[in-house]
Specification:
The structure holds three protein chains of three kinds.
Chain A lengths: L7 E10 L2 E11 L4 E5 L6 H9 L6 E6 L2 E2 L5 H6 L2 E3 L12 H10 L16 H13 L15 H13 L5 E5 L7 H12 L6 E5 L3 H7 L2 E6 L2 E6 L1 H5 L2 H7 L8
Parallel strand pairs in A: 3-8, 3-9, 6-7, 7-8
Antiparallel strand pairs in A: 1-2, 1-4, 4-5, 9-10
Helix pairs in contact in A: 3-4, 3-5
Chain B lengths: L6 H18 L6 H27 L7 H18 L3 H23 L4 H21 L1 H4 L5 E2 L15 H24 L1 H11 L1 H6 L4 H27 L1 E2 L6 H14 L5 H20 L3 H15 L3 H15 L1
Antiparallel strand pairs in B: 1-2
Helix pairs in contact in B: 2-7, 2-8, 2-10, 2-11, 2-12, 3-4, 3-5, 3-10, 4-10, 7-8, 8-10, 11-12, 11-14, 12-13
Chain C lengths: L1 H31 L6 H19 L2 H24 L6 H23 L10 H4 L1 E4 L2 E4 H23 L1 H11 L1 H6 L4 H27 L5 H16 L4 H21 L4 H15 L9
Helix pairs in contact in C: 1-6, 1-9, 1-10, 1-11, 2-3, 2-4, 2-9, 2-10, 3-9, 6-7, 10-11, 11-12
The chains are: A alpha/beta, B mainly alpha, C mainly alpha.
């Protein structure tokens, strides 16, 4: 009998920080290939939720399952090997390295040769080819030698996503990919997101509602750490309670 | 044509000049200079190994002198008690220093940032204390004396300072090449990635702890080499090799030369060794001079000399 | 039985000294995240200044007072001139404090010479007090009592006063404290001075207890480190507990396993690092 295998599942996920419950009893089920938007006002616990899923923070209670395997106690780097990828809300590149080197290090993350200690990195041509391919996709081929901290914010956001994509993750966590982008840059980013591999499962945190509603198949709304509402983009858009929490109406969700 | 040379070019010229100087200089220089050059090369090895931690991995290890001391004592103990050969003591020193790093690493790496600085220093102090109080093994405060230069079966005796200098130079070059390859290797790049952003490395699939641990042990091994050579150089070892002053001096060597460059800490070693030895000829207050060097370096040149040169290069690019 | 009582008492009196050294260090570290390598120098200079005052006036308590004032001022000047603008740059801070430590060490050598000196104490502190069948040296009792009193005073100050609350807030979150209107530069200046004061007090008492000589600053500093690592950085209670542990372990270690005694300090430190890296009372 075929099981309805979810790409990502969270059951009763909670995270407590010395007196503050940042995430309260959140349950999510994401199907393979689904695009799930995570929205909610500030302090809703969205990034904390991502950190629990990626393994950067240990959970206080609850479980995380990746392709039906319990990864709750699995360390962060191992989850990446199981197909998880993540971008950061605040751009998190390797500031002293060139664009090319950033991509090479990203491509190397799941390869055994990262422990090679005597042979020069530059001799691993396939890694560099992978990086060059990505550079071409984002149109930065001639700029490969530039140090990333000298790029514009929009360009850095592009590299931010490229780093996560270069190893073909099966589940991608995008944390506010359009953060700090101009409207024109946001539109470009949205196009990139819509064109991502349809077999990839994507969770996207967004503050920009237009982006979230365009990219996502389903939306989950978080409020003060709890799961507040869930549905299709139009259902959520028309949900008056959701509108209320954004306008600061006092709602005790859980 | 000389005016066209950028500061980067000048650095290359400087390195070439230094290389030639190191290769043929000793044949014409006075003996005491050759002796200081030998000491500088020995410390350059351990300074470079510390640079792998501080400059490349971002691990501010303040206790590195402890592994130098472990290497030194291992050689001293085995040579005075069991008359082990030169290669034997070298091998044992590397094992001892790397082994100690392997045991201490998992404990020290539980911390990060300033905590790591303090813990590594505290651990080094425990090693100092061990050397100081375990009198039956280490001779305590009196240390171990009477280590003779190795008999390598070569036509040149190592008792001659110039011959011993060239032996040390060979070791320095080998260590330099090995560490240079390490820095250029994939593993070396992962260390820089960890220094730049651990959180990014983690989600890219890197086992941060494992990489740091390996770097820690490798750096310890090179410190062991340096310690072994030091004992043959000095014919004497005491607990002071692991004291607070020596721990900080290694950090000063790395900082003054420029962390993250390998060549910088080599220059740093030469600078500190020569400074300490020459200044004391002119004044009793050489500690104060050293103090001034610490403060000035920290305040005005935290990237060291290579950092200053790089900043000069950028400024020239802008004008 | 006598052995255990004596060793425990000795360990506690040593702990008193360590608390004075470690308490100041942990306060400075807690608020400013600076590992002050010159902390041993505060102890050293305090001891030497106390010695001079005591030799000139014959008054032990005056020596204590003057030394404390001098060291507090020295600490505050150091913070303002060198450390104030280097927040968060750990290696640079340590290099600067190392430079200052070397400078002070050589200055002390220049002024007071290389021979060990002993601070003279009032005669009633030089004798022993009879407690039951044990004779306990009065100076050691003085050390334990003064350290305990200082701890109680500091603890009350930290927990019960408004200024103490400001210090606690700065330890927890410096940026937030600044936003809330707390004069953080004044707090850091005050805390640095306070930390120095404790060390200076310890220096005077210590030089009466075990003499003072060049190099003592660097010998004692690692012990302060171990106290703070075990007790937890930034915690006064941690410094107290940590110094008691270190004092007892070091003392019993020296008595029972003299050759491994410094190393026996490593054991509690290793246990703490393995189980609770931030120390017994540490935060974060």
């Amino acid at each position: 009998m075929a099981t309805n295998r979810f790409a990502l599942e969270c059951h009763g996920l909670s995270k407590r920080f010395a007196g503050l419950e940042a995430v309260k009893n959140v349950t999510l089920q994401i199907a393979p290939g689904e695009r799930r938007g995570i929205i909610g006002p500030n302090g809703a616990g969205k990034t904390t939720l991502f950190r629990l899923i990626s393994g950067e923070f240990p959970v206080t209670s609850g479980t995380v399952r990746l392709f039906d395997q319990d990864v709750t106690r699995v360390p962060c780097h191992r989850r990446t090997h199981m197909g998880l990828g993540r971008t950061f809300q605040i751009t998190n590149l390797f500031p002293t390295m060139t664009i090319l080197d950033n991509l090479v290090v990203a491509a190397m993350g799941q390869r055994g040769m990262k422990f090679s200690m005597l042979r020069p990195l530059s001799t691993y041509r396939d890694l560099y080819q992978q990086a060059e391919q990505v550079l071409e996709n984002v149109g930065m081929t001639e700029r490969r030698g530039e140090i990333v901290k000298n790029l514009s914010h929009g360009e850095q956001r592009q590299i931010e996503i490229s780093l996560a994509l270069i190893s073909n993750p099966k589940v991608l966590l995008l944390d506010e990919p359009t953060a700090g982008l101009s409207p024109a840059e946001s539109t470009m980013m949205t196009e990139i997101l819509k064109k991502l591999d349809s077999s990839m499962t994507i969770l996207i945190i967004e503050h920009d509602m237009d982006v979230a509603f365009q990219v996502a198949d389903r939306i989950t709304v978080l409020h003060l750490g709890c799961l507040f509402a869930e549905g299709t983009p139009s259902e959520v858009r028309n949900n008056s309670r959701v509108q209320d929490i954004y306008f600061g109406a006092e709602e005790r969700p859980c | 044509m000389l005016e066209r040379l950028q500061p980067r070019g000048w650095m290359m010229v400087g390195i070439a000049v230094a290389a030639i100087f190191l290769l043929v200089g000793p044949l014409t220089l006075p003996t005491y200079v050759v002796i200081l050059l030998t000491q500088s090369l020995i410390y350059a090895i351990v300074a470079m190994s510390l640079d792998i931690l501080i400059g490349y991995t971002g691990l501010g290890s303040l206790g590195h002198a402890a592994f130098f001391a472990i290497g030194a004592y291992t050689t001293a103990i085995f040579i005075t008690r069991s008359h082990v050969s030169f290669t034997g003591t070298l091998f044992l020193s590397i094992i001892a220093a790397a082994g100690a790093s392997a045991i201490i690493g998992p404990l020290a790496l539980r911390a990060a940032g300033v905590y790591f600085l303090m813990i590594t220093l505290a651990i080094a102090m425990c090693i100092w204390g061990l050397a100081y109080r375990w009198v039956s093994l280490t001779g305590g405060d009196n240390g171990i004396t009477g280590i003779l230069r190795p008999d390598l079966g070569l036509p040149w005796t190592m008792k001659d300072p110039i011959h011993f200098y060239y032996l040390v130079l060979v070791f320095f070059l080998v260590c330099f090449i090995l560490m240079f390859l390490l820095i250029r290797s994939p593993f070396g790049k992962t260390l820089v990635g960890i220094r730049d952003s651990e959180s990014r490395m983690r989600v890219l699939g890197y086992n941060i702890f494992l990489h740091k641990y390996l770097a820690f042990v490798i750096a310890g091994a090179f410190a062991g080499v340096s310690g072994c050579l030091y004992v043959y150089y000095n014919s004497f070892v005491s607990p002071n090799e692991a004291n607070l002053g020596h721990c900080m001096e290694l950090v000063l060597m790395v900082t003054i030369g420029g962390p993250g460059t390998l060549v910088g800490p080599t220059f740093g070693a030469f600078i500190v060794v020569f400074l300490k030895n020459m200044v004391s000829v002119y004044t009793k207050r050489w500690l104060m001079v050293l103090a001034l060097v610490y403060v000035v370096t920290a305040l005005y040149a935290p990237d060291g000399i290579t950092g200053l040169l790089k900043r000069l290069q950028t400024r020239r690019k802008l004008t | 039985m006598e052995f255990w009582v004596n060793q425990t008492f000795n360990g506690l009196s040593y702990a008193a000294l360590l608390f004075l050294l470690g308490g100041g260090f942990t306060l400075i570290f807690g608020v400013m995240k600076i590992a002050n390598i010159a902390h041993g120098s505060f102890y050293l200079v305090g001891g030497y200044v106390g010695y001079t005052v005591s030799s000139l006036t014959g008054n032990f308590y005056l020596a204590l007072l003057v030394a404390c004032i001098v060291i507090t001022l020295m600490g505050m000047v150091m913070e303002r001139l060198f450390l104030h603008n280097l927040g968060g740059q750990d290696l640079r801070q340590m290099l600067i404090t190392m430079g200052i430590a070397l400078f002070l060490q050589d200055l002390c050598l220049l002024i007071w010479g290389g021979n060990p000196l002993n601070l003279s104490i009032p005669s009633y502190l030089a004798g022993s007090l009879r407690v039951g069948k044990y004779y306990l040296p009065a100076l050691r009792i003085f050390m334990i009592i003064s350290a305990a009193l200082l701890f109680a005073l500091l603890y009350w100050f930290q927990e019960k006063t408004k200024v103490g609350a400001m210090v606690r807030a700065s330890v927890d979150n410096m940026e937030m404290s600044e936003v809330l209107g707390i004069n953080v530069p004044l707090v850091t200046l005050g805390v640095f001075g306070l930390g120095a004061l404790l060390a200076g007090f310890g220096g005077v008492v210590g030089s009466a207890f075990m003499g003072i000589y060049p190099g003592l600053d660097f010998e004692l500093l690692p012990l302060a480190f171990v106290v703070v690592i075990i007790g937890g950085m930034g915690s006064l209670q941690g410094a107290l507990v940590g110094s008691i542990i270190v004092g007892l372990v070091d003392n019993f270690g020296k008595a029972l396993f003299p050759e491994l005694s410094y190393f026996t300090l490593f054991a509690p430190m290793a246990i703490i690092l393995a189980l609770r890296p931030t120390g017994l009372f540490g935060k974060g």
